[in-house]
Every structure is written in structure tokens, then in C-alpha cells.
Amino acid sequence: MTTEIAENQALIEQTVRDFAERYIRPHIREWDEAQHFPAEVFHKLGELGLMGVLVPVEYGGAGLGYREYVAAIVELSKVDPSIGLSMAAHNSLCTNHILMFGNEDQKRQYLPKLASGEWIGAWGLTEPNTGSDAGNMRTVAVRDGDHWVLNGSKNFITHGKSGNVAVVITRTGEPGDKHGSTAFIVERGTPGFSAGKKEDKLGMRASETAELIFQDCRISDSQRLGEVGDGFIQSLKILDGGRISIAALGVGTALGAYEAALAYSKERKQFGQPISSFQGIAFKLADMYTDLQASTLLTFDAADRKDRGEKVSLASSVAKYHSSETAVRVANDAVQIFGGYGFIKDYPAEKFYRDSKLCTIGEGTSEIQKLVISRDILRD
Amino acid sequence: MKILVCITNVPDTTAKITFAESDTKLNKTGIQFIIGPYDDYALARAVELKEQNGGTVTVLNVGEAEGEPQIRKALAIGADDAIRVNAEPTDSYFVASQIAHIAQQNNYDLILMGRESIDFNSGVVHGLVGEMLGIPSFSPVMKLDIEGSTAKFAREIDGGKEYMEAPLPLVFGCQEPIADWKIPNMRGIMTARTKPLQVVEPVAVDDMAINEKYTQPAAKGECKMIPVEDVEKLVTLLRTEAKVL
Prior knowledge:
The structure holds 2 protein chains of 2 kinds. Chain A is α+β, with helices and mostly antiparallel strands.
């Protein structure tokens, strides 16, 4: 890493830290308890350039790479993982899909609004009956002249209610055919497109998760992203990058839990000394730190590979798997170090514990990551 | 309008302060440095005034190379260029002399800085700079507008605010709520590296003060909880232990 990149990264981290301290930390508990999605924070993040981190300057973005993107997600997630999650979903799923596979007109129409934070984006692949088994999705798009008619539903969609625009993957061919799906851009307000119920979640409660419903939703062929039948292949490529962002989310979540536990262990006294002086706690902190270092290095390694234009399926799955599991383990240990105070909402460990679990599930479970990794390393 | 904003490079407000070299120096190990918070207000207002009235904002730091990340941040926030006087600041007179020397060469309309740094907190640099340049200085200024070649401003005084007008050039020590702190955006961060940062050597100045030794404040005593019905005991403790009555 050059000095220039290191200095820019440090300044980005400081900027995001300042932002999070001013606009996020004072509201963490309120948003969590009310399950409030703070859209205004994302508009502000847009002013900073954090809603179009990877989008080139010509389309109104910041024109930065994955290393800087990861650094920003880590810093946001360290304070409130649910804000980090929403920022990551907006950038690497909806916005990045249009950036990577949209034509020039689509990029000019949507990217400036998304990159500025004026619009919030959603991305729909998962359905009630198909998560990782996307080839058997039931949401269909049927061609009707110059239009397509969409029917079906998507669930567990980040910004499913508040998103101004969604990229939706639909089946346009036979079930199980990897060339049988196609992606479309659907704007909020399009007749036949509505939001279903907002999920009441264990964690990540300030990040909105809801259902997308399509009932005879008629959209122009100009809303199609790429070629007919490319939707599934496009999705895999989007998820390769998306997994790096969830790896960063895991690192930030773990870092927030670790730093809180470290500080508490130095302040909390039992038997006349800080609990950090007891080996039972000190060794736990050593394990947390070691796991965190490994996750951080894997995540930035995947980001650097992506920035160099290398294929990152393996690296992003490794990073996502390791940092997600680390987040859960570190948050669990943080609760244990806080003891009784880790079990109540007045202290930060409890929320990190709840938030961390999303990391091993979202954008491909840990089991799916192991499948990707094992298939790759066992390939002849 | 040419504005000079002087920034300090100080330990983060949450940093744990320890000393080194037999308690004669700050131990910088593990310390996160930031732009002085009051200087940050001055910088924010300078950028706003530039946006309103045109002109340029130059950032000046008297300090060593380790402070350059803070200078880059100031450039990312909106300053046009920067000057670093390559020296470890020894006392307020030294810092003021360096600022005055730079200002004499550049004819700034406004020289803004924080009302005080948050490390040594002397709060006299703006006054010294004004004296050295022969122009008025005011502090702590909490409101500032420019109309033509006149500054309209408010400063805090005992029991209220004092509203004043004065012709430029002027020196101001600033504090909140003169402006909201600015957070640089990503584009600002990327363009900051392309903005000029000039490093100049200091002018020779005799030390006017020597810091011989630093000590930590006394540790806080344990908190004693006195039941509300036991007021007499409270009064006795305030008289005999705390000795405040």
C-alpha cells in the first residue's frame, strides 16, 4: 500500500468516525428500539460521497475503490452495524448492479440520484422459498411487446419500503436454468409494485428489511439490465463484491464489540483490580484481537484483489466467512466480559451480540461460503 | 478576500495523557492527533466566508511533519492551500512570531484561529499576532460576517455578548457557535492531495518560556454517598475533608 493510499484511507476513516459520532451514536438505542430506519442519515452520507463510493465521478460518485469502501463500512459498523449494513447494501447491490450492468442511459438516469443519497436503492434476489437456490425463484417476468410484466414477491429486502428504486432479479426462463433469469430496474410508484410487511428483527433493527410485491407490474424493456437470461450470472458477480462489504460489516461489528469490551475490562474492578488483569479475561481479549486481525487482513486483501481487477469469488467468500464468524464470536465474548451488564441494553455489548448474527446469514450463509470455498479449492 | 486560518495539531480530547523524558515532554505514543477543536470552528467559518464572498483560504500550521494529516484534512474541508512552518512549537510567543512572519509576506484580510489550543490553552496567540502585525485582534469571537471591507462580529464577554464592527484586516480567536464543524467529503479528501502544501523553515525567535516539568492532576477521591436525611454529616465532611466551607 502506498503512502498516498494509506493517508487517504486514514482520512476517510477519521471522516466516517466524526460523522458517526455526530449523527449516529446519539441515536443508536432510539433507532434500535423503535426499529426506525433513519433515511435522513443516508441523505447526509450521500453528501459525504458515501452512497456512491465505487461510482465514478462522472456519474456523481466518489470514484474510490474497494479498500476505501471497506474502510468506510468498518468505521460505520463499529458504531452502529445496522447503518453499516444499509450503506453497504445500497452501494454494493443496487447501485453497483446498475454501475456494472446498466447501459449508458440507465447509468445517467439512476447513478447520480443513488450516489448523492437523494435516492435509496434496494436489490431483490431472495424469495420466501428461495434463498441461495436462486435458480428456482418464482418471481417471473413475461415479455409483452416492448414491455415486461412482473409477478411474484421478494423478501428480506434491505430498503424494501423506503427504497426509491429496486433492482430485481426475475425468472424469464425455465427453473434451474442459470440462463433463465433477468434483472430489471423498477422505480417506486410503478403500478403493480408495492412493499409488503416490514420485518421485526433480532438485530440490525435500524436497517429496514421488507418484502417487495409485484402484481402485474408492467415495465418498459428499457428497464432491463443487460441481456435477457443474464440475471443469475450478474447476481453472482454482484455478490462477489457484496461479500467483501459484508466481511467489512463483520470486521466493524467485531471491532465495536472488542473495543467496548477492552475499555470495560480496564475500568471494571473486582477483588480490587481491573478484570483485565485476570487471565480468564485477558486471554479472551487476546483471542478476540487475534481473530479480528485475521478478519481485517482477509477483508482488505479481498478488497485489494477486487481493486486490481482479479477474480475474487474465493477471496471474498473466505473474508466473508471468517469475519462473520469472528463477529459472532467476538460479540459473544464481549457480552461475557461485560457480565450482567452485557445482558442489558444500557451497555453496547448486547446490541453488537444481536447485530452480529446477521453477518453469518446475509448475502450467503456461512455454509454457502464454505460451499464456495470448498468447490474452489477442490476444483481440478 | 484572503483568509489565513491557523490550526494546531493537538491530542484527541479523549486521549489519555502521559509524559516522557522525565516528565518534560508529552508522550506521543498511541495518541491520536486532531485539529484543535476551536481552530476547527475557525476553519469552518473561513470556508463559509470564502463560499459567500469568494477569495482564498490558506491553512497555516506551526509544527512538525507528523501534523500533515491534519493539514490534509483542512485542505479536504475546503482550504485552498497550506503552509507548514517546520518547527516544534515551543511557546505562544514562538508560534505567534511564525504566524506574524508569514502574514507579513502575504497581506491577509482575515487571520482566524481558535480562541485557544487545547493542549497548552494559553489563549494569547491571536493577541500576540495582532500586536506583532499592528492590527486589532478580538477573542473569543462567536459570530462573524463580512460586508465589503468591514467585519461585523460578536464576542463573548462577562454576562453577555458584545457586538462590534471593525475594518479589515483583523485577527480573530474563534469559538462555537461561529460555524458548525465541517466533515470533509470523499471528493474533498481525494483532491486534498493535489492542493499545494508549502513547508518553510521557522524564523529565529528567542524562547520566552520554558516548560520545566509536567505533572498529572491529583487522582480523584472516592465518591462518598451521604443519605439525604444525614445533612449534618454532609456539612461536617464538606468542612473537615473537602474544606470548601
